[in-house]
Amino acid sequence: MAARNVERFWEWGRKIVCVGRNYADHAKELGNAVPAEPVLFLKPPSAYVREGAPILLPGYCSELHHEVELGVVIGKAGTAIPQAAAMHHVAGYALCLDMTARDVQERCKSRGLPWTLAKAFNTSCPVSDFVPKEKIPDPGNIRLWLKVNEQLRQDGSTSQMIFSIPYLISYISDVISLEEGDLILTGTPKGVSSVQEHDELQAGIEDVVTMTFRVASR
Ligand SMILES: O=C(O)/C=C/C(=O)CC(=O)C(=O)O
Ligand SMILES: [Mg+2]
């Protein structure tokens, strides 16, 4: 069998590990306390969507939010990876959206239920092209932005993260072994807001990569 190319990680069927509330300003805008430990949840590989295909509104959701995030693509498997070695396990990065059915999430939270319906639906993880590690020498200090219909909604820096990328890789891999082709979504800065059918979402990591998606009904 031909070797698979991690530059097309979204085709590998690997897991997507998401970190929530990793920016104090976003935790605050949703009325949450700043966490003492990373908040984790998962998306399945069926959540991936690439430019050219639409983000589909789940039929059961009336408030779909965008969350722009830096994605970390794992290049080398590991369990209980020490922080000092964590960056050796990174192949590169991707610009990602953690699309969230916010009204559904609020209902799940109030009932003490998991966030699966709010976070893991088909097309809930739009991703850009793969960005090789060398193109982002300091992933802990890079600008992320997102516009809806050309209006800037999110504009933050990964320097605002509460838990750093090495810490997250170490923390996650202690609980969930990381494999080549896995993706970690590192959380979103403030400015999340709702999108409607036909809206155009444009996002970027500084001047490194941009992507554009449209929202459509199912
Ligand atoms: O706690 C909430 O109400 C919402 C949390 C999130 O959706 C967390 C994230 O996905 C994030 O911070 O990026
Ligand atoms: Mg998120």
Automatic annotation (TrEMBL):
InterPro entries: Fumarylacetoacetase-like_C (IPR011234), Fumarylacetoacetase_C_sf (IPR036663). It comes from the Eukaryota. The keyword Metal-binding applies. It holds the Pfam family FAA_hydrolase. Its EC number is 3.7.1.5, 4.1.1.112, 5.3.2.2. It comes from Denticeps clupeoides. The lineage of its organism: Eukaryota, Metazoa, Chordata, Craniata, Vertebrata. One of its GO terms (biological process) is carboxylic acid metabolic process. Belongs to the FAH family. This is Oxaloacetate tautomerase FAHD1, mitochondrial. The gene is FAHD1. It catalyses: oxaloacetate + H(+) = pyruvate + CO2; oxaloacetate = enol-oxaloacetate; acetylpyruvate + H2O = acetate + pyruvate + H(+); 3-fumarylpyruvate + H2O = fumarate + pyruvate + H(+). One of its GO terms (molecular function) is oxaloacetate decarboxylase activity. Residues 15-215 form the Fumarylacetoacetase-like C-terminal domain. Keywords: Metal-binding. One of its GO terms (cellular component) is mitochondrion.
